[in-house]
Design brief:
Blueprint (H helix, E strand, L loop, with lengths): L4 H8 L3 H10 L3 E2 L6 E2 L1 H4 L2 E8 L9 E8 L3 H4 L4 H36 L6 H12 L7 H49 L1
Antiparallel strand pairs: 1-2, 3-4
Helix pairs in contact: 1-2, 2-5
């Protein structure tokens, strides 16, 4: 019975991506992640089984995939030295970093394009004015400092308001059960 790349990698302390990278580095696989193909060198150790889930009315019900398993004997010809395992880990980490850098760049580009397409929501003049106001303040406080003071004051007022809101039922209960009966008791004593 064959083992998947994940199971082979567990024996070596690698995850499935790192194990596939190790197999690629040593010529057993070629291609890119998600689209690997077994090479002639790897064909004697690999078995591929195609699966199809269907028929269904929706595209996600009609999935096709290939399951690749490796014979145990591949461990005899595979270089599993600490250096080759670390090289596979480093290659996967670098690919992951490059992928996320590309995603971040695409997001920043899309954000800039959106902001440029909606000047009614993101006016450029106001941002430039705010920057110049923050650096040319007459009283020595920058615009950011003033904004911070205002935001802090608003937060303080909100906190006080919330405290009053939470305390009001308790104060009302205390007033009705302690204070009013106390003064009514004095009135009742005077009437007697």
């Amino acid at each position: 019975m064959g083992k998947s790349a994940r199971i082979l990698g567990e024996d070596l302390g690698l995850n499935s991506q790192e194990m596939n990278q190790l197999l690629k580095d040593q010529g057993f696989l070629e291609g890119d992640p998600g689209a690997y193909v077994v090479t002639e060198k790897g064909a004697q150790f690999a078995k591929e089984t195609d699966f199809h889930r269907g028929p269904g009315g929706y595209s996600w019900y009609n999935r096709d995939w290939t399951q690749r398993t490796w014979e145990e004997s591949i461990k005899d010809v595979l270089d599993t030295s600490p250096e080759s395992r670390q090289a596979a880990r480093d290659a996967v980490a670098e690919a992951r970093r490059l992928k996320w850098d590309a995603i971040k760049a695409e997001r920043a580009e899309a954000d800039a394009a959106f902001r440029a397409s909606r000047p009614d929501l993101f006016p450029v003049e106001k941002a430039e004015t705010a920057i110049s106001d923050s650096t040319d303040s007459e009283d020595g406080l920058s615009g950011l400092a003033v904004a911070g003071i205002i935001a802090g004051g608003a937060a303080l007022l909100a906190g006080i308001g919330y405290g009053v809101y939470k305390a009001a039922p308790h104060i009302k209960n205390w007033w009705n059960t302690k204070v009013i009966p106390f003064f009514n008791k004095d009135k009742d004593d005077e009437e007697k």
